[in-house]
Amino acid sequence: MMHTHIHETEIVIVLTYVLIGLFFNFFASSKIFRGLLGRYPDEIAARWRIYLQRIIGMLLFGFVPVVLITILLPTTLHDYGTLLADPAETLLWVLLFASVVIPIILIRGKSASNLAAYPQIRSKKWNFNIIVLSSLTWVGYLACYELFFRGFLLFSSQRAFGTVPAVVINILIYAIAHIPKGKFESIGAIPLGFVLCYITIKTGSIWFAFLAHSIMALTNEWVALYHNRDIELEFKF
Q1: Which segment, 39-43, 45-49, 143-147, is predicted with the most confidence on average?
Q2: Does pTM surpass 0.85?
């Protein structure tokens, strides 16, 4: 009974925060960015709007949930898949994923629809510093994002409802979270969400999801950057 009560409390806290976090990320954050960056030139505002979105995402999806779980529940971060239990198995899955996804991105990455959305930073000129800072904020954001979705949400749902309902809930919320990015990404989030959930549960770790998502995001950004004729590359330190 005690474990059941803990799991019920855990899932209520997690699902409540999921709704609050996604709402803020969708709506409130964009208004804040417009207010903060409205005084700056378009080139600077274009970069820092994305940087700030990712930094706030790190707080929303990483720092705040960790604090809440630590204070309110008798669980540890290891209960949410942060431990790399089997590095060799995880690396094997990552290599398999990369061997499939990277060729697809190389082909699709130069499409008009992809170039219209990526890279997210719409600056007309990119230098080495912008590429590095964009990559670092991407990786930091995705680490917290996967801790949130495939860590807190997936493992708490699995303990409360079982594996299949947990995966369904995760995929549904994951697809909804991609609606602002368009129909294609929202639909694509369904098979991707299944793969990320399946391997996360199989390995007992979020590390595959984090590495796979990072590979996909960075590869797509770099391919789109290379093919976007509206962007000038200046590799200066």
Answers
A1: 143-147
A2: yes
